[in-house]
Amino acid sequence: MKKTLLLAALAPVLFTSSVLAAPAMTSNTLGGASSVLAPVTEGRWFADYDEAVKVAKAEGKDLLVDFTGSDWCGWCIKLHDEVFDHAEWIDEASKNYVFVALDFPRSDEAKALVPNPKRNEELKDELGVRGFPTIFLMNTDGVAYAQTGYQAGGPEAYVKHMNEIAASGKKAMVASKRVADAFTSAEGDEAKWAAWGDLVTAFNDMDADSPFVSSLVDHVRWGFDTDADNKAGKKEVAAKALLTKGIVDDELVAYAKEADPKNEKGLFEITVESAFSQVRDDETARAAVAALEEVNPMGFQDKELGFRLNFTAARWCAGPLEDADKAAKLGAKAMEIGTDDPEMLAALKEIIG
User: Fold this and answer.
1) What CATH number corresponds to the domain at position 292?
2) Most buried residue, 13, 18, 101, 184, by CB count within 10 Å?
3) What is the pTM of this model?
4) How many structural domains compose the chain?
């Protein structure tokens, strides 16, 4: 299962925190305005979402919506340089999608090129965009069925990636509606719990960044609240499902720690994973590292997860959090857990010193 928010230090998902800042990139810019905007002037991209919807309806296509920071977001620029500016990608992707670039620039010159910044903000909030670049594949009814961002490999690899997430996303769209309708219409305790079980299975099968996760959260939470004393074991099932998807609140975390105080079931470590998925700035990064230090002495049930979290935390501490001692400690823990990736091992050796 993908955890695209898990490795914020490794993946190019960009936020304003120094923990998650993009590498400085000044290439392909002119007068403060990035070449990310160039395709818009060439007619390949729309800067106005609503205009793009009209065109997509007329052409029988879906939408590819790129939330970008054209004059500051290094990974946004990199994505355009490596993928979106190439004919191999444009020719294939334009067969099924109308392209939309919703820009959130910082310079006055670039801001002047954005036709409707208020509408862009509305769409960003509606779709829950938390970093740049964020790419949605959407139908003309405004339903986002797939979400991605920067992917290495060039234009042909990106087309393949888009095809894969589009297929799985449309499948999830159908599945989420089916299980939600079955659950809401079920009558009687036995039928209701059976429908809930099917719904949780579908929920667990979704990628963590699937746009349809949020549509099922309240239904999954119903099991957590209804089986309040966990006599039927549904509360624990619901808690694990929600936390695994990065759905975090104080009640869920408190229950997981109470139900699994020594991490023997792996619930405790999921709360730490969730804390990492919620990192947005230096303060939340420090809180995630503290949670990791709490679970490390217990040991991880999922060794790969334990390595990834310690590796990520070590890089944060060695970098923007500026805590060399803690970086060395967490790096040593990651080395102890182990990995077959030589590049990660080399990075850890450099951190440990």
Assistant:
1) 1.25.40
2) 101
3) 0.68
4) 2
